[in-house]
Specification:
The protein has 344 residues and is α+β, with helices and mostly antiparallel strands. The protein has helices at residues 2-18, 22-33, 38-44, 54-90, 109-123, 137-140, 172-182, 224-239, 292-297, 314-322, 335-338, and strands at residues 127-128, 134-136, 159-160, 165-167, 188-197, 209-219, 245-252, 255-264, 281-290, 306-313. The chain has two domains: 2-90; 109-341, 2-Layer Sandwich (BirA Bifunctional Protein, domain 2), CATH 3.30.930. The protein has a seven-stranded mixed sheet with strand order 1-5-6-10-9-8-7, with helices on both faces. Strands 2-4-3 form a three-stranded antiparallel sheet.
Length: 344
Amino acid sequence: MKDKLLALKEDALTKVDNATEPKDLQNVRVEYLGKKGPITEVLRGMGQLPAEERPVIGQLANDIRSDIEAALQEKESELAAKQLEAQLAEEKIDVTLPGRPVTTGATHPLSAVIDDIENIFMGLGFKIAEGPEVEQDYYNFEALNLPKNHPARDMQDSFYITDEILLRTHTSPVQVRTMEAMKGEVPVKIICPGKVFRRDDDDATHSHQFMQIEGLYVDRGVSMSDLKGILLTFAKEMFGEDQQIRLRPSFFPFTEPSAEVDISCILCHGEGCRVCKHTGWIEILGSGMVHPRVLEMAGYDPKEYSGFAFGMGVERIAMLKYGVDDIRHFYTNDQRFIKQFQRL
């Protein structure tokens, strides 16, 4: 029995030494150390041996099992090292190849225009205020002099989540929330940039989602001339010193009086062309004096305080500033388009 075990050990170690792949070692492990292997059979037949031989043969069988297992582990490490060496040699980097250029990002044109607008108004003493995009009906409509079932609500067809919750249709709710938070203190001088949503057609000049910036100034003695002065300064800073503005009577439920604001055409400088439909003017935003009812609902006495508000679509400003002819270019993620506006 002893000679048989030693012969098994020699055969197993020879096969381990000759193995060239991990599967060869697995075959040796199964053949000699498996449940049906010869060493296991020897151990199972120990009961047939004389009592004095059992300890010797059992110890020898266990030693041989350990020796074979140790040889397998050593050979596995050797094969793994050779495999890694071959893989590294095959995958080595050719340092003589030219490097791949790293592309740099570009500021999105809408982000760039928002930054410009914010900088202009902050230079005029305005602060930036923000609010939720998912808004209550009260702040989006009712607190802005648009009670339920008022026909003027049709001007801003909305995405409702419940009867009282909707995606905001403008950033005007931020104005109301800010006045409430100020608790009657003055001045209130803010701009409100943000994303707004309306159920609108998607075409070259409309989108169901767009960016808007609104402004609000409330204090004692604020007048329409203050509004015109602020907006004229904005137009000159954004489009050039030769820009002029005009205010046309209009209607907004939350301002009274209300006005559409035009700038002199940036292409023909007021002479008349196809872009301005030969009028010499291009509309850029809406504005007006804050309605007394809006002031009152926000906690301000309209007999003591007055204010003005205005609102502009960022895409509209960007299209005019950069000569973009389709609003959808801003949202298609075309790198060729965005890279045109890269700022150093």
